[in-house]
Please model this.
Amino acid sequence: MLKPKYIEQREPLTLIKNDLLRILDVSAISKNRDVACNVSTDCPSISSYNLKNTWRQNSRNWGHPMHSMASRSGSFPPALADYFINHFSRVGDLVLDPYSGKGTTSYQACLLDRVGFGIDVAPEAYVLTGAKVHIVKHIEAVEYLKSIRFGISKTNIRDVHPDIKVFFSTKTLAQILVIKERLLEDLGIDTTKINYDSGLVFHHARTKKEQCAQYWFGVLTGILHGSSSYSLSLPCSHSFSMAPNYTKNYAKKHNLKKPDRNVIQCMIEKSHYLQSSGIARIGGKAYLGKAQELPKSWEEKFDLIVTSPPYFTAQNYPWDNWLREWLLGFDFKEVRKQTTQTASCEKYSQAMYGFLKEAYRVLKPGKRAFVVVGDVTKKSGDEKIIINTSSIISHEAKKVGFNIDLIINDDIPPTKRYNSSFLSVNQGLQIDRIVCLKK
Ligand SMILES: C[S@@+](CC[C@H](N)C(=O)[O-])C[C@H]1O[C@@H](n2cnc3c(N)ncnc32)[C@H](O)[C@@H]1O
Model:
């Protein structure tokens, strides 16, 4: 197996493993008193600028090509996951991200020869995580595709919702429909059995056939919308599914064309690129499920957690991915009911308590969890207040038994902020904070 190219380009490490204070410039640590939602924490904190050889030295695009399967708003850079995995776990360790998003931590763990586990309640996040960590080689994925009898779609194109048709030409859409149906059959997600109302949200691809279907779903999710040569939609954002009416009007004004694509060919081209530097040697596991309800059998199983829960309502993941969720047979409104997305301090704290309690349960004693959260701006009457979400995480983490080692403050440059192209320089999340916890 090829060793991923980027590992060879890494700066030689001068840091010492498994000892947080040894990697820091201790003189730069200060005591911060933060207050948020009536919760105050006294924690040692440090600016990420004072850490040595961190993710800051790498561009946002640093990392293995597989990480670019799909752009998804709210993701952290692979270099950040790499930093914590590399310094706080060993080869063969089990690394968990219970809010896995597009699978950044989970796949980076596999690339570093750890076993990367990911769980997310959003179907497209689950599919993207599984598509990466199941280690389906391009050749076997193409063989699987060749074995499918695509035939014609059960869905008449006239019955497709007009919002979907805004994005695709009739020829392209006809192919997407049939591929979607065949892959759904093989992946075996029965959306009628996944009951979002009863909280019974669980799926995990076990067989090679399910994993191949999940791989291609991941690839397809990544090219569904965007403006590259293999994007299937009219030119639009790659990171989030745009609003249909806005897109329709914008396309009309700018005379944007819906391309006729050979969908399978686009999928194969993208897959070829994703694996152009080889793939990870060690596989992992992906689950559709909730961070607050991890499997009972995971008691003291993990050596490290690197994760990033939602920050209040800073992002609306189900709406941002509504077209991708349609592809997988889900309605974004149903998905939204299950995600942690609330402006209420009380509800947010409860959700974080639930997650941290589970994180504590599944970590081995003495092991660490790194939780990345951003400060958010909230309206309180006529006033705007900034909530330091890390205070809530620290407060809830103490309740479940964690020690809080440190908070790393990481400024987000204006151009990298969420939806930065739509916001002025002073808007958007301005600082991420990484809460370093120890069991
Ligand atoms: C900040 S994003 C994580 C992004 C990830 N670090 C990455 O690089 O792609 C938060 C994720 O939490 C997921 N989520 C929201 N509520 C959840 C819950 N209760 N359980 C599990 N995942 C949840 C969202 O779907 C979203 O993918």
Observations:
- Confidence is low (pLDDT under 50) at residues 1-18, 417-428.
- The chain has one domain: 5-438.
